[in-house]
Amino acid sequence: MLDGKKVLVTGGTGSMGKTLVHRLLAGEMGVPEKIIVLSRDEAKQHAMRMAYQHQHITTDEAIFRNFMNVLEFRIGDVRDPASVASALRDADVVINAAALKQVPTCEYFPEQAVLTNCIGARNIVQAIEQGGYPVETVVGVSTDKACKPVNVMGMTKAIQERIFIAANVLNPRTRFICVRYGNVLASRGSVIPLFHDQIRNGGPVTLTDPGMTRFLLSLNDAVDTVFEALRSARPGETYVPRAPAATVANLAKALIGKRRVETRITGIRPGEKMHEIMVSEEEAHHCVQRGAYFAIRAMLPELNAAGADEPNALDREFCSADTVLDLPGTIKLLERHGLLEIGQAESAAEELLR
Per DSSP, which regions of the chain are E strands? Predict the structure, then answer.
């Protein structure tokens, strides 16, 4: 599908962006002519470049060869219309993974979240409109926090979704679509690296609220969602994985295992929900199932003609409280993704039998 295409990844040095770029280089979606990583952090770009330069010694030679011939790094910022327009000029497909995503940070600096998450999306749409660039597809990477948002991060991501969806009306040559998913396991700034660090230092492991639930996906699950949307999403649709959820208490128990590590309740942080929602009750009325994913169809009537005969997949919201794994299920999920340190899976399982 991406054979011979030029793919622009904004925020390509982030956790999800790096996994996405690696899999694009592996040729899963075809071999692109060019993969352009646009980000503002030269240190992360340098680290990523050096990692690929040394990778051919121990891993897939094809990925190294593609890196040498295909991958291009550009310093720039989605907030800056000029750098966005310059990068878009050479792109067939755009994946917008640039974001301010830390909930407390966005609460304290809401204007910064608006600039990256909202104005950045507008800059992409505006560059395509004003430059007349023949971009085929734009994928906006969103979050479950955009659904019935209560925090700045979610609010700005909800606006980003609407900016991209509405762009289909005035830019019919380009397909604008979105993906929305929950917490990405072991991504930068997420809870699992924090718990691992706290455990290694002897505790305490800090829990906001033991009953809090979160949808959980791996970095590869997140990329799978982007790839499936690229393959199948119609203009204005938002793809949502049918993901499991877990309580933060079970996450902590699974990671601690037999260790004598104290847990401490710290209370919900500014802007946090007890439970996340991936598809709202209102969206459920125009949500269809496509394999392992839900597709939320656009509410705009101009975009709703195709697929109108597909039956609704949900009769209520899709909430993390509805799909909660028990402790053994949480252990298996973490083990499957290699996130339990040696012996932790066994020790946690033994604790259950006591």
Answer: 6-10, 34-39, 71-75, 93-96, 137-143, 175-181, 183-184, 205-207, 213-217, 238-241, 245-247, 263-265, 277-279, 287-290, 293-296, 318-319
Residues with catalytic function = 145
CA–CA separation, 158 and 147 (whole Å): 7
Task: Count up the domains in the chain and report the number.
Answer: 1
226 and 17 Cβ atoms separated by less than 8 Å: no
Low-confidence ranges of the chain (pLDDT < 50): 57-58, 342-354
1 is a domain residue: no
User: Residue 58 burial (CB < 10 Å; 0-12/13-18/19+)?
Assistant: exposed
pTM of this structure: 0.90
Instruction: Give me the domain span that covers residue 170.
Output: 6-352
Question: Are 50 and 43 in contact, with CB atoms under 8 Å apart?
Answer: no
CA distances from 296 to 142, 244, 314 (A): 13, 18, 10
99 Cβ contact partners less than 8 Å away, ≥ 6 residues apart: 11, 14, 116, 117, 141, 157
Residue 309 confidence (pLDDT): 77
Residue 63 counted as domain residue: yes
State pLDDT tens for residues 22-59.
Answer: 999 999 999 999 999 999 999 999 999 988 887 654 45
Determine, yes or no, domain membership for 73.
Answer: yes
CATH of the domain at 12: 3.40.50.720
